[in-house]
Amino acid sequence: MRRMRTLGSRLLGFFLRDRREQGLDDELQSHLGLLAEENIRRGMSPDEARCAARREFGGVEQTKESYREQRGLPFLDALWQDLRFAVRILAKKPGFTTIAIATLAVGIGANTAIFSVVHSVLLQALPYPDSKRLTVVWSIFGTEGRAPASGPELVYLRERSRLFEEFGGIWAQRGALTGEGEPEHVRLGLVTSNFLSMLATKPELGRFFVPEEQGTYSAKSVILSDALWRHRFGANPRLIGQSVRLNGHPITVVGVMPPDFKIIFPEGSSVPPEMDAFVPFASNLAQDPRDQCYIRVIGRLRKGVAIPQAQAELESIATQLRSEFTEFSEQALGLQAVPLHGDVVRNVRPALIALFGGVSLVLLIACANVANLLLSRANERQKEITLRAAMGAARGRVIRQLLTESVLLSCLGGAAALLLGSWAMKLLLSLRPAGMESLVATSFSLPVFGFTLTLSILAGILFGLAPALGTTKLNLVESLKEGGRAMAAGKQRPRNVLVAAEVALGFVLLAGAGLLLQTLASLLRVNPGFNAEHVMTVRLSVSGAKYQTPESAIHFFRELQKNLAAANGIDSVGVTSHLPFDDTLPNWYGYYWPEGAPKTEQNTVMADHRSILPGYFQSLGAQLVAGRDFDPIDTQENRPIAIIDDNVAARAWPSGSAVGKKLNVENGNFVRDTVEVIGVVKHIQSHSLTDQVRGQIYLLYPRAVRAHMAVTVRSNIDSQSLVRLIRREVANLDKDMPVYGILPMNEYVEKARRSARFTSTLAGIMAVIAVLLACTGIYGVASYSVLQRTGEIGVRMALGARPGEIFALIMRQSMLPVMIGVCVGLGLSLALTPLLSQLLVGVRAGDPLTIAAAGMLLFSVGGLACYVPARRATRLDPIAALRYE
Questions:
Q1: Shortest CA distance to 575 belongs to which of 714, 722, 709?
Q2: Beta strands 249-256; 221-224: pairing state
Q3: C-alpha 881: how far from chain center
Q4: Can you give 318-376 as a three-state secondary structure string?
Q5: Are residues 668 and 730 in the same domain?
Q6: pTM higher than 0.85, yes or no?
Q7: Which of 422, 126, 131 is nearest to 273 (CA)?
Q8: Range of the domain at 726
Q9: What's the burial of 875, exposed, middle or buried (CB within 10 Å: 0-12/13-18/19+)?
Q10: Residues 442, 495 within the same domain
Q11: Which pLDDT tens digit goes with each residue over 491-526?
């Protein structure tokens, strides 16, 4: 209780310190006055009496300090005094303060922006209930991993698993809303009845699906996204229970999802984050074919279950399924459990970690620069600090004061960094690659603010500690001498060390940025197997009531292709089920083997299957390397033929021609079929610009009817006129058909480069900042050296030294830390650049040309930064230099 009263009294004393200081001063003056009066009565003169009273009483300031320690909070009092003094000191040198704050704002701001991305993407949990227990369950077929599951697989998982609470599934499709207003394309998710309740606590309006609504063989209920509910239906709360027309059929709206709900699934899962509507699976999943795999499965682990335990159970279930069902044994079925969050960020994690390491180096360079500024300023404050020490100030007290100034400076830089980081976040969002769907907000969260504050304080201590320790290490006798200038020369060594460190760290950043920029350049040079120039793509879905038969869908696309091809300015028109680099629809791939292959060679190799109409290769600019293309007669007669790419041809018939050979494939009804190969086309990069994920098999559209197709149009018409033409021709055939996904083919290619562009752009920006900071540091040290050696230079010139000799002397001494930094940076780069191997394409880590270019650039920049001060030194007037104090 006594301690609480003491603490309360001290707190009161801290907040009422002005009043108490005045009372203390009055009380001390009263004591001094009484002593002086006593001395006067003893016969002293008034002046002598006052002096004697002070001697008798002791140090007034020491008495006050003792009182403050007993009655107040000494730490807070001292901190308050240090802060006030620091503000006055920084305000006296606005130029120095502005440069230091700007330098720190760049270093801390870059770290703040990247950390906000790292926190949002890597550290923050997904916005789902108990998201840490959510896993993705992938099927594995032989060597082919990350595959979807079939309906029976999902049912078996539910029945046999004991370590998972539940499983849910989704299949992304497309649909059309018709009725009132213009027809509108919707991104449609076919889901199990429990899927949405696994990812959201409750809907915004209405309810989730119930088990009875799944497997009814006709969609009867739909849940809308908030965005679709607002812009299509005006946010009408009475829409719940009403019918809308989806794909030409009436369907009842039972719920609306929350505004911030989105599907965050791994890249390559063909599940877009923004879904417009959800309907339950219409089919009975247990009765689906066991080898018809299309469902993306997620599971929720029971509490306390770890991934290795779940994986062991899934392997056991896969073994049971292979032993019980022929379809699973033939496909060598395996199952894999991966944490949902970890799978979502698996592709962006290496890039973000590398970028975070890069901005950390930028901050270290910025701290070295500010430390150099403080060392320069320390010489100006040498006499001030010497006098404070001579008057009895302890070294620790002075160090604390100097560190308070540096931390205050760093915090001001951190405040400016938040503004800079906000702008940097906009840049990051504009470059955002796939895998960063959770990065949606541009405002900084509380953890980001905490990170910025902590980083500012640590940075202030980091760049302020060395100058503070060096400045307070004094020899009072030497420091108080008039000619203490010699001491300044001894302070050049730590400045040179900091310059060498800046150059070394800049070397690492420059080398890494060079490697990443070469990767981007390699991707720009990659031939994707087609010519994307002057190609427009549009998406169409024949999934409504008008297209219940395959013949109606075939007729629509053939007529559309014929009408578009007849228009002026159109070179060619194609139709395909899957566009290259388009991940918005599920991929279609399956096993293939040459006719007559032994059983052991079947179900071993997979290829992407594509459904096309004649003219697709011509519209895309793909190269036919053998045989012929499809023609209208093939389509009309629905011939059992196929075109394969050179990858499939080389695997199936490595020693002969593929044309005329028979191939066992999966047809449009997911049934094994034998087709004749009539042509071989050069491989088209569909998933990645650099990896040939799978070969490709192209089937005629009548043999593989798909509801969702893309039209590719090559023309010399401007894009706006071309889009109007396509819309008009589609409306002439079906006025209720929504046209969507209108994009130039170049956009898909650019999407494939986005991840590399993201990392290389940011790395390039960081490298430029590092070089500029290093250049500034080198220039500052060289200029300071010339300034401090003005007298010496004057003597040399008076004794006959030529300007060229002075120039060489300054350049040699100024470039020494640069050369040391380049050598250290070379070693660091060779050690650290292998960490970037996962991000590199077309260039290897430690590439000698890149490393050499980084070293030459830094050496040249360092030479340029030293040139100006060295040139200035040669123009000194010897007489003026000799008079320099």
A1: 709
A2: parallel
A3: 54
A4: HHHHHHHCHHHHHCCEEEEEEEHHHHHCCCCHHHHHHHHHHHHHHHHHHHHHHHHHHHH
A5: yes
A6: no
A7: 126
A8: 543-736
A9: exposed
A10: no
A11: 567 788 888 999 999 999 999 999 999 988 888 888
